[in-house]
Input
Amino acid sequence: DGGITQSPKYLFRKEGQNVTLSCEQNLNHDAMYWYRQDPGQGLRLIYYSQIVNDFQKGDIAEGYSVSREKKESFPLTVTSAQKNPTAFYLCASSIGPGSKNIQYFGAGTRLSVL
Amino acid sequence: SQQGEEDPQALSIQEGENATMNCSYKTSINNLQWYRQNSGRGLVHLILIRSNEREKHSGRLRVTLDTSKKSSSLLITASRAADTASYFCATDPNQAGTALIFGKGTTLSVSS
Output
């Protein structure tokens, strides 16, 4: 099955703890993205990567970090500097920028603070 | 920065009725896309319309684009209860190396 897989589905963070959300795709897509979604809100871009070993900050990168060591993987770390991490996190991938930049999404990870 | 603004924020209709959602944006675009999100799930791509297109159809979906007014509309005809979801427009800015920009969405509720 081709697709994009996020894990875990639910994650709980303790005060001062860093947590890492996993995102893996087997679509052979160059570009990958992380979004944050708060209740009743749209998607806000955290980080995106258009190619391996390169990534750019989105609109709300503070308190988050990413890596892109492999084409298939784009993990997101929510650091202790992110004071309000409770949200639904969505990972997406696309062939790449261009005239048909359609994004494919994972099922999401819901992060809560203990 | 959220470029797309959907209108209305919420829409409730009966099965069989048509649902129309609107999206406005601010800058020039390569294309505009509509996505659907069922509660607690990821987004699913519905339809893409390029900046040089004015109308596009896909099954019960009809999308229009007016680049002079920087606006788009999504029409779902003969709605079904299964169409209940949030719908988002996303613009692909006419700038190299930028990501899609999503609006805040319209929540559609179709009752049987």
User: Anything to note?
Assistant: Chain A is about 0% helix and 50% strand.
